[in-house]
What we know:
By secondary structure, chain A is an alpha/beta fold. In chain A, 34% of the residues lie in helices and 20% in strands. Chain A contains twelve helices and 19 strands. In chain A, the strands form six sheets. In chain A, strands 1, 2, 11, 12, 13, 14 and 19 form a seven-stranded mixed β-sheet that branches. Chain A has a four-stranded parallel β-sheet with strand order 8-7-9-10, sandwiched between helices. Chain B is an alpha+beta fold. Chain B is built from 15 helices and 22 strands. Chain B has helices at 13-24, 60-76, 98-109, 118-124, 145-158, 208-214, 278-291, 333-337, 353-368, 392-400, 418-428, 433-440, 452-464, 468-486, 495-508; strands at residues 2-9, 29-32, 48-49, 81-82, 86-90, 114-116, 134-138, 141-143, 162-164, 167-175, 178-186, 192-202, 221-231, 239-242, 251-255, 258-262, 266-268, 300-311, 328-332, 342-347, 409-411, 416-417. In chain B, the strands form four sheets. In chain B, strands 5, 6, 7, 13, 14, 15, 16, 17 and 18 form a nine-stranded mixed β-sheet that branches. In chain B, β10 (167-175) and β11 form a beta hairpin. In chain B, α1 (13-24) packs across α9 (353-368), α11 (418-428) packs across α13 and α13 (452-464) runs antiparallel to α14. The radius of gyration of chain B is 23 Å and the shape is globular. The interface between A and B is large, with 60 and 55 residues.
Amino acid sequence: MSGLGRSYDVVVIGAGLSGLAAALGLAGSGLRIAVMGKGGGYLHSTSGCIDVLSRDLDGRRVANPLAAIDDLCARRADHPYALAGRAALDAGVQLLRGVLAEAGIELAGDLSRTIDLPTALGSIRSTGLAPLSMAAGDLDDRTPVLVAGFRGFRDFYPPYLAANLSRLTGISVRSLTLDVARFRGRRHLLSTDLARLFDDPAVRDEVGRLIKTSIGEAGRVGFPAVLGLDKHAGAQTHLENLIGHPLFEIPTLPPSVAGIRIERALRRALLRAGVRVEIGFSVRGRINGHRAAAISVESAGRPTTYQAEAFILATGGTGGGGILAARDGELTETVFGLPVTGAGSRSAWYRESFVDREGQPISLAGVRTNECLQPFDAVGQTIDNVFVIGSTLPAWDPLREGSGEGVALATAWKAAAGVRELLGERLAAAHTVVGKYAGG
Amino acid sequence: MYQTDVLVIGGGATGAGVLRDAAMRGFKTLLVERGDLGTGTSGRYHGLLHSGARYAVKDPLSARECIRENLILRRIAGGTIEDTGGLFVTTPDDDPAYVDGFVHSCREAGIPVDEIAVGEALRREPCLNPSIERVFAVPDAACEPWALIDANVRAARAYGGDAWPYHRVTGFERANGRITAARVTNTRTGEDIVIGCDLVINAAGAWAGQIGELAGAPIPMTAGKGSMIIMNHRVVNTVINRCHLPGDGDILVPVGTVCIIGTTSINVPDPDEYTIEPEEIDLMLREGEKLIPGFSRLRSLRAYAGVRPLYGSVGVAGEPGRELTRAFTVIDHRARDGVDNLLSIVGGKLTTYRLMAEAVVDALCRQAGVERSSRTAEEVLPGSENGAGYSIKDRLAAIEGQGGDENALICECEYVTRSQVERMVAERGTHDLGDIRRELRLGMGPCQGGFCTYRAAGLLHELHHLPPDWTNEALRRFLEERWKGMKPVLWGDDLRQMHLDEEIYLNLLAADRLPATPVADGNP
């Protein structure tokens, strides 16, 4: 470690949902916090929903997420939910609801009932909490649907969606592809381009008029999730007033506008709370005995060393870059070089089928921890001031379980609590020492 | 019942060449292929148009055939060939004494071979191992197999020939030692059709033994599996060969935006049942390092394997299969098996497909008692009339100029537009994303279908108005087919691609929870 140094109380490594939530969980406690992310995190490619547990261990759809999580914890003591506990999930969800509400994003649902929503293929996706912008898509509701897309937008196909959805649910679903004058002449229209266009009231006026004339028997209208970026909440209300029926958004291929809205809300809340967020640099760390000593960041010009009392490791798994699975079969945690479980030879990493309900075995790899989420070193000793969260943890598969956001939030909260406890003692001790000298 | 003079079985390069040659010589000719055209060995090779130098020392007959055909194909099929040239390099791992015999054998076979200075070779190919000791330039090239097959079929159609993909031969009707008809099944509709014919040409390649079995004329075939890896970068612009006796992982071919390293050679019991072993991957990456330092750290896109149609039963399953000749054989089953009107064409290489077709159609003329000579070496194939070679730049330039939302990119990696997909689907009536891939290269780039699979499925549905289950099945099959090639080379940062694909198809789109109707070959 060399170069200029900085010092924080807590450094969170990783800027996905779990890292941002952990930093938010500590913000306001008087601690000096930094978040270091190599990339923007995975929120740009998610649905914008908060999945907590959509399928049980046997792959069956869950009806009551909270009850199913209790059942999961009873059967699988090594699952991150079992380590974090239900209370941490409740607190993490509460935290997120509050931060998003400040940004005008309300979450529908209460985790006692799974919400079924349509996908862009017309299949059914189950989730725990949905942004209000998607809530009217609830498939428990039998109201006839009109699905509207836009000519020239290659990431949404209303006829295919409608055909699958009506066949699967029996709900009347019609499709419509709008030819919007303001979108013409654009060869490559991304969801984010459309979202910015929908921030403009004139675009909404045109789209609203077009829908109004073709609404027919439908009582609600499904759109790709592109209805505004910065002015999203107002955009949806404006369109609903024009059309006279509820609207709902359907997640698209990445970039996911609904996910980007959440990421922006969290990042802004962190900045308001005085948390430093730095994106774009890879991080290497060093362990001394039972403690992580410092991390080194490849910043412009030279490496910068960050000292901290505690570190939260939220770098993701083999998908996020937190765990590197090498060709020779070796699995490495990329920041501190912590031991990774879930190895086996390369040929055992994958199943024959891409859509296998059991998931790909490599997804279960992760850094094993104690029940406080503190990892072990190579000889099994606990590293006291590191907390591992989210996809860096082993023994869970967010996709197969439908639990990605829930586990991120629960473990983030649990780690934040662990940090508070650890630093509470240390900070108190430090203040005592300072006081003694000051007084003496 | 459908009636034809000549029935050709097998829609690879050889079968397509036979179809064209026979049609040009005035026979009413029909080709049947169990899958899409070019889905057997022709579509699963490394894309190398051999100069013959690779075989010069060990298999001089094959070498002579290769150089002769190489020069003919450059003339008649230039539009499917990128004239990359080829280099044979002696690395520190190769026996320097091989060079003398190599140069001599090339000259004997008529292969132009020029030694060039190492420095010049490194200027031409800066990624080459700087420790190479000798370099020889030969006229190797890269060849796009599906375009070549398509050109042969189009040429044949102009002479009244026809090709039926997705028609599997299930049996033959025989009378008095002759085949009178073939029974085929349309694998898309399930319809059974009887095709009456005067003569059958078995050009089923690695599957020729199976066809022979059905006709009561067993052929000893060995399926020689060769595995290859597609690398994400075009690290060389010239075909690079190790200057030694043909071995594993010693050819590197630039193809479009990528390059392909090959091959291994392991005999397998069944041409439809094989896996790519991790050891084969590791071996090819290790060998690749000897040609291009750092090779094994490049991104590997996918691995695939083809089965060579080796004639003879000397090969034992599981054993290396480099001992059988790469030259070809025409089998007349009259004397051998008592089947009067069946010819088989076995062995050979893609480079010699035209010569193989000529030889078997010559045998056909002898049987029919007519004297008509082949003109396939003289007449230029459709798409190659202007004499310009295949170049990815031309394809991209043509698309770049088009505006409008109908030209929105459906596949960004390979530059496939919405209007191209619409046109191709309308022309072929296909409902299979694999067919679109082979014709337009959809899903063949760095993301391996991550984004375009969904888009192409959405378009398919809009174009066909079929029940969604058909499209769901096409989507599922394409995802599984891409996965099959990705998983042998998935490690390190490339695992992110898998997670992104999972995120899109299993989370955002919940594609695993769609009802799909399993249909033979994915077509209604």
